[in-house]
Design goal:
mainly beta; 266 residues; 7-stranded antiparallel sheet; 6-stranded antiparallel sheet
């Protein structure tokens, strides 16, 4: 058993892994063959607009510089300058790694990264990604990935592992912002990890601001207790509405909302 695995077992499943060797190993698995260097004091900058309403959930994480050419069309879009079509080769990456529930050889990583200086299109400002990593023959390797919507995206706004069904197995909840066309959102991705793979069971806008055609503004907050009562058939939220159909409320309107999952989480 490696030192990284021993360090991992000291953490509860809900705690992110802080072992630096394992974090570096995870990055090298996601970006194979590329040099990875920690950048002291470096943080991905969040634009001033929406900074208060859209927190950067990974802002406190170490930033790493990864050097290498884009690996796919999404990365090429984020790395390409709309001015001269040059491709940047430097990634600046924030990462958070968790142990896969009930496993000592599986991990899930949440990554947020951009290509500094690329002057990319608004459709791919930066990239938010989930990666499923498996240890095989004492080496981490990616088995699957899930890329969030990159349109006007600049931050992962929330990350948590929480049991939404009461079965003792935690679901991964990741919020990622995007927007465009007079609208700004944070999408909440609820991912079932109980089947040994990344399976999205619900994607719902959790922070909404629109400015055209009947503007609205509201937030959804997980209602864990009510969700557990539904035993995986629905995920429940507390909805706080600040504006609806162009009408701004003097006091926010609070209501309960339960949304069916794509299939039963259990």
């Amino acid at each position: 058993m490696t030192t990284s695995i021993l360090a991992l077992l000291m953490f509860a499943a809900t705690d992110p892994i802080t072992d630096e060797a394992l974090r570096l190993e995870a990055l090298r698995a996601v970006f194979p063959g590329m040099p990875v260097v920690a950048v002291a004091g470096k943080r991905i900058k969040v634009p001033k607009v929406n900074r208060e309403t859209d927190p950067d959930a990974l802002a406190g994480e170490q930033i790493y510089r990864v050097t290498g050419q884009p690996q796919d069309k999404t990365e090429q879009c984020a790395a390409e300058s709309v001015i001269d079509l040059r491709l940047a080769s430097t990634h600046e990456v924030a990462i958070r790694v968790y142990a896969w529930p009930r496993s000592s050889t599986e991990f899930v990583a949440i990554l947020q990264y951009a290509f500094p200086g690329s002057r990319s299109a608004m459709s791919c400002l930066s990239i938010g990604m989930l990666a499923h990593l498996s240890r095989r023959h004492d080496k981490l390797a990616p088995t699957e990935q899930l890329v969030m919507d990159t349109t006007h995206h600049y931050a992962i706004t929330g990350v948590q592992l929480v049991d939404l069904t009461g079965d003792g197995i935690e679901e991964l909840v990741v919020e990622s912002n995007n927007g465009g066309g007079g609208a700004h959102f944070s999408e909440m991705h609820i991912v079932d990890l109980s089947r040994g793979r990344i399976k999205e069971v619900l994607v719902e806008n959790s922070r909404v601001r629109t400015w055209h055609d009947d503007p609205e503004e509201y937030t959804l907050t997980l209602d864990v207790a009510r969700s557990r009562q539904r035993k995986g058939t629905n995920v429940c939220f507390v909805k706080t509405a600040f504006m609806e159909n162009g009408q701004k409320f003097t006091r926010p309107r609070v209501s309960n909302v339960c949304i069916p999952t794509r299939d039963n989480l259990k």
